[in-house]
Amino acid sequence: MAYILAVNAGSSSLKLTLFVPSGNLSAQPLVHHLTASITSISSPPAAFTVKPAESDVGSSPEKFRDIKDHSTAFSHFLEFLERDCGIDKSKIGHVCHRVVHGGKYDEPVVVNEKSTSQIARLSDLAPLHNGAALSVIKVCSDALPNAVSVAYFDTIFHKSLPPHIFTYPINPEIAHERGLRKYGFHGISYAYILNAVSKHLSKPSSSLNLILLHLGSGASACCIRSGKSYDTSMGLTPVSGLPGATRSGAIDPSLIFHYTNKANKITHDPTLVVDVPVTLAEDVLNRKSGWKVLCGTTDFAEITEKAELHRPDTDGNEYRLAFDIFVDRILDYIGAYAVKLEGKVDALVFSGGIGEKSWQLRKVVSERVKCLGFPAVDEDANKKGGSGIWDIGLDSTEKRILVCETDEQYEMARQLHETFIESK
Ligand SMILES: Nc1ncnc2c1ncn2[C@@H]1O[C@H](COP(=O)(O)OP(=O)(O)O)[C@@H](O)[C@H]1O
Ligand SMILES: CC(=O)OP(=O)(O)O
Ligand SMILES: [Mg+2]
């Protein structure tokens, strides 16, 4: 039996799913074997959770102080597989790696010396991601020398962005020479969600206009027009757009020079094991901003709990401020995208850790977008939750409000299975 391992290096987490091809192409071609996630990698101790396919819930998180970065998290997972699950790692035939920034790549690429050095060159454009993914790719290639590894890029899904959206109004020669344009990220997640919504609504994806929200440690919005990415909130790098756990999101670009007059000094942060040379400006905006500096926590559940949402006046409550900032910036994009879609929106979709779990955030955002023709929220469906993909709007006849549990690992493994296994 040859397994497919899908590895998702997020900014603060490493998520891994082991799949087995079912051999039945007409039904479900891939079967989940187990999923593990290591969270809080950037704010130790990291927490390790496992969820075998047959169980609905994961194990209680186990804390590990010796997991201090993505590559040690990956080694820990491989040891766990062999020691606790009795799975011989040489049975892993293919590995899919999520790589956030793919620059000019417009399709996935087999990991080899050439593609690895290209991915490394893009590291400073995704300082929280590409370096971490590369460190995992390196450990993985050493540990699984016979497996075929393929890199899947977040950016590929957004190759449909039109020029007036991906172009920044700056000197075109410099922009072209240095690749300074909007790329957009979370594309593997958006590809999965688009498929899931198409199935849920029983409509071909090419007919769908959607506003998708991927709200996790990194958060973004995507405007889908006729089944393709038409606009998205992240830009040249994942720092733009919505704020996140440690990221500022969009700010006035001049702000950083008023914040620090050493903005362009290169920093080598000793707490980052992967040495990506970034400027102090980028370090501030990527790692020393967002919920962490506003509230001292990156846990949005804690922020929501302490935000006193029932009170109209909460002056001085930093949790409420963070919550309100997030809602405000999310509304910016929903409003803009609804207009770009000329009001013809089939669904607004919440996903990512916060989008899938925070019924409070969904409730507040949904109430504010009623003016665009979205239905009132069904309190029960919203609070109770569900699995896979479900409606939370009271009226599901026209514009829908959906929650979708995204699965970037599945999306990569599905694509890998299609190109490397099914077609053979
Ligand atoms: N019950 C909850 N309510 C609100 N936010 C939550 C809840 N559970 C988890 N989260 C948030 O989800 C985020 C992680 O989302 P996820 O998409 O898994 O992140 P990553 O970007 O690391 O892939 C965490 O920052 C956490 O704050
Ligand atoms: C692109 C991005 O921000 O990814 P993540 O949310 O996984 O950190
Ligand atoms: Mg993620």
TrEMBL record:
Q: Which coenzymes or cofactors are required?
A: Mg(2+)
The cross-references to Gene3D superfamilies, in alphabetical order and at most eight, read: 3.30.420.40
Q: In which pathway does it act?
A: Metabolic intermediate biosynthesis; acetyl-CoA biosynthesis; acetyl-CoA from acetate: step 1/2
Instruction: Name the residues annotated as catalytic in the UniProt entry.
Output: 154 (proton donor/acceptor)
Record field: catalytic activity: acetate + ATP = acetyl phosphate + ADP
Site Transition state stabilizer: list residues.
Answer: 186, 247
Q: Which InterPro entries match?
A: Ac/propionate_kinase (IPR004372), Aliphatic_acid_kin_short-chain (IPR000890), Aliphatic_acid_kinase_CS (IPR023865), ATPase_NBD (IPR043129)
Query: What's an example GO BP annotation here?
Result: acetate metabolic process
Q: State the Gene Ontology terms under molecular function.
A: acetate kinase activity; ATP binding; magnesium ion binding
* Keyword entries, A-Z: ATP-binding, Kinase, Magnesium, Metal-binding, Nucleotide-binding, Transferase
Does the record carry Zinc as a key word?
Answer: no
Q: Please list the residues that bind Mg(2+).
A: 8, 408
Name the positions where substrate binds. Answer: 98
The record's comment on protein family reads: Belongs to the acetokinase family.
**Protein name (database record):** Probable acetate kinase
Task: Name the source organism.
Answer: Leucocoprinus birnbaumii
